[in-house]
Amino acid sequence: MTYKEQLDKNRIPKHVAIIMDGNGRWAKERGLTRSEGHQKGADSIREVTAEAVRIGIKYLTLYTFSTENWNRPVEEVSTLMGLVLTSLTKDIFMENNVKLQCIGDFSRVPPEVMAHINQVIDDTKNNTNMTVISAFSYSSRWEITKAMQEIAQEVKDGKLNANDITEKDISSHLVTNFMPDPELLIRTGGEQRLSNYLLWQSAYSELYFCDTYWPDFGGEDLCKAVLDYQHRERRFGKTSEQVSKS
């Protein structure tokens, strides 16, 4: 029986976030260039997106490019920007009735790349099956700093009392304010850290780490992660007894 066949369709997480790690190491083990690894990783995005739609996930957030990735070799960064133009096409989303959104600090993104992303966002804005969020030139520390600056300005302008600031106020200033927090956060490639990704939003996310490199991660791997999630007890600070009674 496949992992997909074992899934409880009534307990599919509404929002899954993924750190797509391992493209470079996948390529190195095969005597390929890092660029070829990233190109193969783009194929996995298509497959995982389609499977996420089929099993009923409503939000899929992909860590596409972090603010720290700007420190990588110029050639690799250039390749990644080029992949956005060649691989991030509307057909990936239209064939699955998926909407694209993008979050991040776009100040360093080349204008032609940003224009392409915005065009795909516009082309897919009416799609309804699922929303894919590309975390592009993104980091949680950047996002939280930005939110604090905005809140501080509201306090300065007299629109908000500092003593009245709530978690809801902070969440509303984050770039992810249009979607629920992820119930499940997956990281491929064998590393076990969050790497500055959705730190506020993943406070109670279930974390799933696997050794599979992203280019080898497919639909059945996604289902395996979701099945693992379904076998966990989400307590949110409560005891097991309290959860069982709710």
Short description:
This protein is an alpha/beta fold and 246 residues long. Helices cover 43% and strands 15% of the residues.
Description:
- With 246 residues, this protein is an alpha/beta fold.
- Helix content is 43%, strand content 15%.
- Strands 3-4-2-1-5-6 form a 6-stranded parallel sheet, with helices on both faces.
- Helix 2 (23-29) packs across helix 3 (34-55), helix 3 (34-55) packs parallel to helix 4 (74-87) and helix 3 (34-55) crosses helix 9.
- It is globular, with a radius of gyration of 19 Å.
- Mass-distribution shape: globular
| Main beta sheet | 6 strands, parallel
What proportion of the residues is helical, as a percent range?
40-55%
The gyration radius over C-alpha positions equals 19 Å
Low-confidence region ranges? none
Strand segment count: 6
SSE pattern: HEHHEHHEHEHHEEHH
Proportion of strand residues: 5-15%
Assembly annotation: single chain
Q: Quick check: average pLDDT? A: 94
Class from helix and strand fractions: alpha/beta
